Amino acid sequence: MTKQIQNERRADKAKPDKAAFVIAAGLAVVAAVIFWKTATMGGAASYARIGPTAFPYVISVGLFILAVWTAFEAYLGDFPEREPQETKPILWIVGGLAAQMLLLNTVGFSIATGLLFAATARAFGRGPLWQTIPIGIVLAFFIWLVFAKGLQLSLPAGPLEQLI
């Protein structure tokens, strides 16, 4: 009976890993895009053997090698068992990013980034929103002060920033 279980485990492990094939395809696409954009890049100096196009080519070849290697390992089924993914934290972070992008020009940097901070804290299981939103706004306002007033950089200003 134990031989049968071992053979079943080997058969299960030998199945190709579909998720790894998707990752390999993604790596190959990124490698192709980098290679193509580098090949069509205009204005590259040709007076030196190693110019601005050398490293993007190296990176694209490296990514392509990783794509082939990943596809080979996926075919063999050698990847370790993955843990189940929790989508709720991912949705909190993506929702926070979407809220920041949508609200940045209307409510300003501090409030929009404070909401992103609170959503990310919620995704990591830290504090209730009534506590993390004000903390995020205060931290973001301090960052806005450093960049806008200290470094004279332009960040979107809302009602809170206009008080200063």
Q: Could you please describe the fold and organization of this structure?
A:
The chain has 164 residues and is an all-alpha fold. It has 2 domains: 8-76; 87-161, no CATH class. The protein has helices at 2-13, 18-39, 54-76, 87-107, 109-123, 129-150. Helix 2 runs antiparallel to helix 3, helix 4 (87-107) packs antiparallel against helix 5 (109-123) and helix 5 crosses helix 6. The chain is flat. The relative contact order is 0.09. The mean pLDDT is 85.
Alpha-carbon distance between the two ends: 76 Å
Q: Report mean pLDDT, rounded to a whole number.
A: 85
Oligomer: single chain
Biggest pleated-sheet summary? none
Helical region count? Answer: 6
Count of all domains: 2
- Helix content, binned percent: over 70%
Low-confidence stretches: none
* Order of helix and strand elements from N to C terminus: HHHHHH
Taken from the alpha-carbon principal axes, the silhouette is: flat
Structural class by SSE content:
mainly alpha
Total beta strand runs: 0
Radius of gyration: 24 Å
Summarize the model shown:
With 164 residues, the protein is mainly alpha-helical.
Topology:
Layout (H helix, E strand, L loop, with lengths): L1 H12 L4 H22 L14 H23 L10 H21 L1 H15 L5 H22 L14
Helix pairs in contact: 2-3, 4-5, 5-6
Key attributes of the depicted protein:
164 residues, mainly alpha, 6 helices, membrane, transmembrane helix
